[in-house]
Amino acid sequence: MSFIKDENGQGMLEYVLIIALVAVVAIVALIAVRTVLKNKNQQISNQMNAADAAD
Questions:
Q1: For residue range 6-33, what is the model confidence (pLDDT) as tens digits?
Q2: What is the C-alpha to C-alpha distance for residues 55 and 49, in angstroms, rounded to an integer?
Q3: Residue 9, phi then psi, degrees to nearest 5
Q4: Dist. CA 16–CA 9, nearest whole Å
Q5: Contacts of 35 (CB under 8 A, 6+ apart)
């Protein structure tokens, strides 16, 4: 049962899993920020159009 004692790839796998987790969190955060910025941009555009129509 030498495969149980062989832990050469364990450290590398842990790093890969951590990097994958960080990437997923970053992607989710970017999607959330994109949505917030898109909504804020739409609000600003609506306010500018309303101000222009009032003139």
A1: 666 788 899 999 999 999 999 999 999 9
A2: 10
A3: -85, -5
A4: 11
A5: none
The runs of H, that is alpha helices, within the chain are 2-5, 10-54
Residue 3 has pLDDT above 80, yes or no: no
- Write down how long the chain is: 55
Contacts of residue 20, Cβ cutoff 8 Å, sequence gap at least 6:
none
Q: How far is CA 51 from CA 1, 6, 38, 43, 54, in A?
A: 76, 70, 20, 12, 5
Q: Model confidence over 39-55: pLDDT tens digits?
A: 999 999 999 999 888 87
